[in-house]
Amino acid sequence: MTDGASFRKLTFPPTDAYRHMLPSPDPESLAAAVELAVAIRSARLGRATHAAAVKYLSPRPLPAFLSNHLVNMYSKLDLPTAAATLLSVDPDPSVVTWTALISGSAQNGRPLSALAHFAAMLRASVRPNDFTFPSAFKAAAAARQPLVGRQIHASSFKSGLIDDVFVACGALDMYFKTGLTFDARTLFDEMPQRNIVAWNAVMTNAVLDGRPDEAIKAFIKLRLHGGIPNTISLCAFLNACAGASYSSLGSQLHAFMIQSGFDLDVSVGNGLIDFYGKCHWVHEARAVFDEMHMKNDVSWCSMVVVYAQNGAEEEAFRVYLDARKEGIRPTDFNVSSVLTTCAGLSGLDLGRSLHAAAIRSCINGNIFVGSALVDMYGKCGSIRDAERAFEEMPERNLISWNALIGGYTQLGDAHMALTVFDEMIGCGEVAPSYVTLVNVITACSRGGLTKEGLDLFETMKERFGIEPRLEHYACVVDLLGRAGMEERAYEFIKTMPVRPSISVWGALLGACRLHGKTALGRIAAQKLFEIDPQDSGNHVLLSNMFASAGRWVEATEVRKEMKDVGIKKGPGCSWITWKNVVHVFQAKDTTHEMNDKIQAMLAKLRRQMQAAGYMPDTRYALYDLEEEEKETEVLQHSEKLALAFGLVCIPPGIPIRITKNLRVCGDCHCAIKFISGIVGREIIVRDNNRFHYFRDYQCSCRDYW
DNA sequence: GTAGGGTTAG
User: Which parts of the chain span the membrane according to its record (predicted)?
Assistant: First the structure.
């Protein structure tokens, strides 16, 4: 509510007005009460006033102007049936009545109803006026119907109303939103008068269409024409800067906003938070947030997103909790953005509590919330919950399907990923995107369905009209490499039409490690070092490849090289959540308060594992030690410590969930398989790449990761 | 009495 349009007749606070409103039989007072109901969005007051009007005025019919007020009220409050019924009993509805019905539908996200009402109005030989056309254009724009939009434009042209700025701005925005950019530009150039709304339409749509530079140019041109930007222009400009990562330009504008006092506007403040967040200037975003005089739910949500998208998930969650403390209701926006941080943290318990909050706030049917739930459960390794969340969604879109397929991909369940993919195609409601294909081809690769994966890659353009991107090429290299066709994968890379990326060579190196192809592995590693000389992961992979092949000299060389060039392996850590507390472990960590019990558990497990035939794989020991010392060292890896803690604390029957920030180590992988069988428990390890489900001496990845 | 351009998410 920036311009107070809906309040223009009220000189006192509307809630007070409601309190002192007394039923009064004259039509003027009744109309005022109806208008008030719209302003405070109270369907209760609206209905009560309608009933009072009928009672007071019966047996006389409602006067036309009061009837218009009522249609408008029902339509604006999104009670379309009541609005349409009232109009239908009117023997001669005027253009005002029709426009009230049309605008309400357009504003409440019912563009197709709005267009249907517009058509019905024309059939009833009622001519649209300068108020009708803007709503009709808005509906055509929202419904993405360029042809309908063009017809409305023609009609407004014939009636001469296109010269009205409101009408022209509606047409302008409609042409942009329906993709008829050329028509939009022509219209803009030919407009007899351009107001700020027209300029804003140019700018906001340029940003929406991913042309931020054009929005910035338009802003400069507006200033050169002596135009005064308003809050909407400034939000558009900030969005453009965020989209193009023009951090200094945006912060210059911030200075201008402070001078002109625009930064006091909530929307502009929110735009600034978002802008700084997208430029990764987290401190600046927080400073704007802290200094805001007025915060609304969007401000809080934007701040959550800033943290979530800049790798500070815990901080994001804290802001969400602070918002709750401040009395901010968990909105669909809020919940869906915080759910992504749970997915990132692997925070299943937090995610479940958000799910419960979503149900309590009746937003669990929202498509964003639903998709975020599917995504969160999938990423937290709870595929049954992901399936259930998907089933419960009242409607689904591309993102929902991608989230479910992604869940199966993370698990390595290629058959289910393909089944759901087929279902998605079969339902005919959504077309797959390039993300969908990355997911299914990756699933094929992880599940060993080499032929199916290659088939998908080769036919994706023809079947789905999707041009293969770099990600898809990397998938194919992975697919071939895992299946033992490293040479073919290398040939494939040579014929790629795009320059191979880190993930392409990384996939080849991974495959070479898996199958002991050291010569080719060295080539891949060389390419990787050229692209990113400082990456520790690739050096470790190369060293492990030599170690697995028993080529100790080369393995040591790579390690030494890393040391010489000053590459440090980031500290590996594993964490486990128990009773809402996150317990983090590093290798050889003895600082935990339950260290004694953890060590006792490890000693016991070691005896039991060795009795069952486990041999410690000391190649994963980092130091040059005696064999027995190496055995002790690998036993102290962070994932084993976290697991021992879980076995000490978490009662039998509850699956143990561990998250690791690096790839799970080979010896730990083998040990956890044994432990899952010995203690008879489900153990789920999420590493930086995928899930491992350990059960009964086996892992879901089939030792293929 | 009826109108146009906007901030946050999967």
Answer: none
Q: Which nucleotide is nearest to A174 (CA to C1')?
A: B4
Gap from A5 CA to B3 C1', in Å? 11
Is residue A121 very low, low, confident or very high in pLDDT (cuts 50, 70, 90)? very high
Q: If we measure between CA atoms, which residue out of A29, A521, A577, A54 comes closest to residue A350?
A: A577
**Each residue of A152-202: pLDDT tens digit?**
999 999 999 999 999 999 999 999 999 999 999 999 999 988 899 999 999
- Determine contact, residues A313/A279, Cβ cutoff 8 Å: no
Strand B positions within 7 A of protein Cβ atoms = 1-10
Mean pLDDT score across all residues of chain A:
88
Q: Could you tell me the distance in Å between the CA of residue A252 and the C1' of nucleotide B7?
A: 19
The C1' atom of B5 and the CA atom of A653 lie apart, in whole Å, by: 57
Nucleotide nearest to A99 (CA to C1'): B2
Q: Closest nt to A239 (CA→C1')?
A: B7
Provide, in whole angstroms, the distance separating residue A109's CA from nucleotide B2's C1': 18
Of all helices (H) and strands (E), which one includes residue A489?
helix A486-494
Which pair of tokens denotes residue A121?
A: 């109005």
Within chain A, which residue ranges are assigned CATH 1.25.40.10? 412-565
Q: Identify the residue whose tokens are 């009709």.
A: A136
Spanning CA of A310 to C1' of B2, the rounded length in angstroms is 46
Region label for A125, one of left (φ > 0), alpha (ψ between -120 and 50) or beta (otherwise)? left
Check: CB of residue A227 under 8 Å from CB of residue A196: yes
Q: Provide the CA A108 to C1' B6 distance, Å, integer.
A: 16
Q: Tell me the mean pLDDT in the region A76-81.
A: 94
Nucleotide whose C1' lies closest to the alpha carbon of residue A336:
B9
Quick one: which of A431, A434, A433, A457 has its CA closest to A444? A457
State which CATH number among 3.40.50.150, 1.25.40.10, 1.20.120.290, 3.40.50.720 fits the domain covering A412-565: 1.25.40.10
Pick the closest to residue A546 from A558, A538, A555, A537 (CA basis).
A555
Which tokens in the block code for residue A368?
A: 């964003």
